[in-house]
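Quick one, tokens below. Sequence please?
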């Protein structure tokens, strides 16, 4: 659950982004896991979904896999935080994120997805990808995924 004041707006990174509604000091808790706002789904529940439900789940793309292998789906603005290789939000531990530096009001909040998504998930998306595949990756996963795959090579 996002613990600071934010708003959604058009992102220069990709689609919609989350923006700070006020200045945030370095070290401030920006997110903490909430049983109510962060739906946690064990992997066996996903495996037992119907084909139609699995397709819908995969198309949502608003989840990550926690250290226990559970899928976490945020129900607040957190699901719109975009990727950056130089994020202004970092993980303090598995249940808390903090401001990596001072963040100005109206600055987009970013996270390094590599810190929250398993390496295998990136490998599956990026396998055998090259520059000519970036438009496919961009339309399927968003620009952040395409850029990550190119930098990974």
């Amino acid at each position: 659950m996002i613990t600071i004041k934010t708003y959604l707006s058009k992102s220069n990174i990709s689609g919609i982004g989350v923006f700070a509604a006020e200045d945030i000091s370095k070290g401030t808790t920006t997110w903490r896991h909430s049983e109510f706002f962060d739906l946690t789904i064990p992997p066996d529940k996903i495996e037992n979904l119907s084909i139609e439900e699995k397709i819908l789940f995969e198309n949502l793309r608003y989840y990550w896999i926690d250290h226990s292998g559970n899928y976490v789906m945020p129900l607040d603005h957190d699901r719109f935080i975009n990727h950056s290789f130089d994020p202004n939000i970092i993980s303090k531990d598995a249940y808390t994120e903090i401001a990596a530096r001072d963040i100005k009001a109206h600055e987009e909040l970013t996270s390094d997805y590599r810190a929250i998504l398993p390496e295998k998930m990136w490998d599956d998306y990026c396998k055998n990808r090259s520059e000519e595949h970036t438009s496919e990756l961009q339309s399927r996963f968003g620009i952040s995924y395409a850029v990550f795959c190119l930098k990974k090579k």
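Helices lie at 43-47, 51-60, 119-126, 134-141, 143-152. The first strand starts at residue 6 and ends at 10.
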